[in-house]
Amino acid sequence: MIRPLPSPDAPAGGNLSCAQTPRAERGAEAGDPPSASVPCRIDADGPLSRASARGRGAGTAPSLRRPARLRWAGLTLLLAALAVAAALSVGVGTREVGWADIAGGLAGRTSTIGEAVVAVRVPRTILAALAGAALGLAGAVMQGVTRSPLADPGILGVNAGAAMAVVVGMAWFGIETLSAYLGTAILGASGAAALVYTMGSLGRGGATPLKLALAGAATSIAVSSLTMAILLPRNDIAGSVQAWQVGGVGGATPDAILALMPVLLAGLAVSLLSARTLNILALGDDTAAGLGLSVARSRLVAAAGAVLLCGAVTAICGPIGFVGLVVPHLCRLLCGVDHRWLLPFSALGGALLLMLADVLGRILARPGELDVGIVTAFVGAPVFIWIVRQRRIREL
Amino acid sequence: MTTEPSLVAEVAAHRRRRLRRGAALVLVLSLLILAAVALTLSVGSTPVAPLDVLRVLAGQEVPGASFTVERLRLPRAVLSLLAGLCFGLGGAACQTLLRSPLASPDIIGISAGSGAAAVFTIVVLGWSGPAVSVAAILCGLATALAIYLLAWRDGVAGARLILVGIGISAMLQSVTAYLLLRAPDWSLQEAMRWMTGSVNGARLSDAPPLLLALALFGTLLLCQSRNLETLRLGDDKAAALGVRIARTRLLILVGVVGLIAVATAVAGPIAFVAFLAGPIAARLGMPGRPILLPAALIGALLVLLADFAGQVLLPGRYPVGIVTGAVGAPYLIYLIVRVNRAGGTI
């Protein structure tokens, strides 16, 4: 259970993540009844600020928090970048379009080819933004729940689980409607998440990032080979699965977006409401329990929000990896580790990343286009390796 | 002082027993492999009598059996055997080196490099034959080198190597999936070979590279197996016992990559064979005995039996990688639960 304390001279990236929060720091206190040493009204104001100021000492606290001015500036910057990315996503693509086409397409006319192209790009842009926001948020929540800087719906095998559930549903139960896809994908995502977390947290040391990542990788391989086994004798559904197995937003339709919305809103609400408990969880299980938090239940609730988000996105777009990994790490640079800020930032950042990746995929592979899933893999894998290299072995 | 001779005798007897048991295990496994080869050669959609099989192997022309055995079944059996040996040996060495049963080459991305290169050369460049194998081997080596260098920070630590490998592997797998699924003349059967591994379309001309790899890298690994066992005690203790850590680790990694890359180039990344062979061998063998040789034999046995099951027992002719993948998934869960209950770390 007890991990060694990170030393104060932790490497440069060390302050990026909540995962290095010492678990045993206040272990002695945690055994006391909450009323003895810790205020009961932990929800009166930011639990992190108080607890971290006391538990960590003033030396490291400033590096974990960001001044409010910086956060607001970051937020403005993100929103501006989002607007630019949305404009790019509508205006740039395989086919060049003029201003008149863009105006016409946005107004809903499809009389010229250019206008029709723009009209197709609008739902695509919206889907990219929604899917990116969901994945970024899901990644941030998963990193908080597992306290692993390497948590991501792709790395942990949750997307693969959702994909397999959809294939099973199509092959054996003949599901065809969007809402059925969504339901099965969420079921599969929760199954995979539960399996990987259980596998990763058994044994000595609890759920370490290394064990979780290994369990996720092994589960992905197992699940995708089972998916293949189901798919192989079924040439009738292979075609529709083929288009969907590399994550992409190219097939966006208003119907898909409408079906996605309620699930995304539910996931968003659950995730954002978990921000406070994630902050407490970041202090370590013992401390969180000592502060009166029901650790297992809050983990479950927060994870359910993340699973809803990434399961729904996988059902519509296919498995898209690495967005949930990259975005929270970059957002921590802007807004610090407080989840009440980090979660909204990650949602916006995820939307930005996925829209840009989509535009990049259209530009790079002209006259065809690269699926957004492969672009995010190439953006994300270097970041993953960078995170691994930043940390000490003990923390992995 | 008087007890010393009897103690020595006891230790010697114990050692002999362990040696004998290790030899017995290898013998039993070899016999099982022979039986599996005989099974795959004689049983199938057109059964061939064992005597006829022997006559065909001896070079005689047997009407009705020669084509089936010589052209169809023999290459499959030989390739399954050799690829299984490569995967089992390489996987067990890698797991022992990195001290984790989950850290097998297929999970940490060494196979993914070879697979992605093979798919790229076939789908995009339109190559075929030995050129694809060479590209797959070179790319497997390059991937392993990249993982090794990226994991280097004042030396290579096992945990960092595994994690960097997982990242690289995720990236390469998305490349493979993208190339296969977007290829114009996409065929699920061909794609399957490079996503989960298959010995469909095996030719005897694919065997020499595998034999060469086994002779070269297999011998290297078996020669290093003593140092490898010592490394399991931990870097510090192994160094104190006189093992040159960095050199041993590099040699073993080279051996692992060579075996896995060649086998992947021929048969695709047959899912989970490298992953399963080591733990099964460790369970069958005596604790503390080197497991590399039994693991290699178990790898061969696994591929032979899984291919037989996919071809004959299951409806629909599944490629071998699908069968090993389906067997491997539950075993993976069982393994993790068991190892954790025993208090070990993964």
UniProtKB/TrEMBL annotation, chain A:
Q: Carries keyword Membrane?
A: yes
UniProt-annotated stretches for the region Disordered: 1-63
Where does the record place it? Answer: Cell membrane
UniProt KW ATP-binding keyword? no
Q: Which InterPro entries match?
A: ABC_BtuC-like (IPR037294), ABC_transptr_permease_BtuC (IPR000522)
Keywords attached to this entry: Cell membrane, Membrane, Transmembrane, Transmembrane helix, Transport
Q: Which family does it belong to?
A: Belongs to the binding-protein-dependent transport system permease family. FecCD subfamily.
Span of the secretion signal?
none
Q: How does it sit in the membrane?
A: Multi-pass membrane protein
Q: What's the domain of life for this entry?
A: Bacteria
Q: What is the protein's name according to its record?
A: Iron complex transport system permease protein
Annotated membrane-spanning segments are 72-92, 125-142, 154-175, 181-200, 212-232, 252-273, 300-321, 341-360, 372-389
From TrEMBL, chain B:
Q: How does it sit in the membrane?
A: Multi-pass membrane protein
Q: What name is this protein filed under?
A: Iron complex transport system permease protein
- Subcellular location(s) of the protein: Cell membrane
Species in which this protein is naturally found: Cereibacter johrii
Does the record carry Transport as a key word?
Answer: yes
Q: Which UniProt keywords apply?
A: Cell membrane, Membrane, Transmembrane, Transmembrane helix, Transport
Q: Which residues cross the membrane?
A: 23-44, 77-98, 107-127, 133-152, 161-181, 201-223, 250-277, 289-306, 318-337
Q: Which family does it belong to?
A: Belongs to the binding-protein-dependent transport system permease family. FecCD subfamily.
User: Looking at the record's lineage, which domain of life comes first?
Assistant: Bacteria
InterPro entries on file: ABC_BtuC-like, ABC_transptr_permease_BtuC
User: Does the keyword Heme feature in the UniProt annotation?
Assistant: no
What lineage, starting at the top, does this entry show?
A: Bacteria, Pseudomonadati, Pseudomonadota, Alphaproteobacteria, Rhodobacterales
